[in-house]
Specification:
single chain; Aconitase, domain 4; seven-stranded mixed beta sheet; alpha/beta
Length: 168
């Protein structure tokens, strides 16, 4: 499987989940491993406790709204989640995900074809999701090549020194 294809168990959250419910504001200064143990604790309490590395989080509309704190994205990545798929993301969350190297895919209609516990295969590069449990599939817009390059490099922060050297 390529680094842009993720296969794992589905975890779900609903619409309009703000960053403060991904990582509570009182935890933002905690060590990252501590933050990871509490990600989404009020939205889906089982997620941080039972999620296995590579699992897939599926969210509804406007996931990651409100504050632009990148700690919400960093906390999700620290859980070991394979990728996050949502009906839509807030623009700030979307940008932050690519900046730190968290694979995400915006896929309208996704919540209608998945249920928590299903096994999913997500191809971030192609913009597709297959529900291996039900057989359902969904195709959206493929991720832009420059964003894929960011993900493959570990995020914008990780590849920035290489970009600067290329321009010199």
């Amino acid at each position: 499987m390529s680094d842009m294809v993720h296969n794992g168990r589905c975890w779900t959250v609903g619409d309009y989940v703000p960053t403060d419910q991904i990582v509570k504001s009182q935890r933002v200064l905690s060590p990252l491993d501590e933050i990871a143990r509490h990600v989404l604790e009020d939205v889906n309490p089982r997620f941080a406790r039972e999620m296995l590395p590579g699992d897939v989080l599926v969210a509804g509309r406007h996931f990651g709204q409100s504050s632009g704190r990148a700690i919400a994205v960093k906390g999700l990545k620290a859980t070991g989640v394979g990728c996050v798929v949502a009906e839509s993301f807030s623009r700030t969350f979307y940008r932050n995900a690519f900046e730190i190297g968290l694979p995400i895919l915006e896929l309208p209609g996704v919540t209608a074809i998945v249920a928590e516990g299903d096994t999913l295969t997500v191809d971030v590069e192609a913009g597709t999701l297959r529900n291996d449990t039900s057989g359902g599939t969904l195709a959206g817009r493929p991720t832009a090549p420059f964003l894929l390059d960011m993900l493959r490099g570990g995020g914008l922060i990780a590849i920035a020194p290489h970009l600067i050297q290329e321009r010199s």
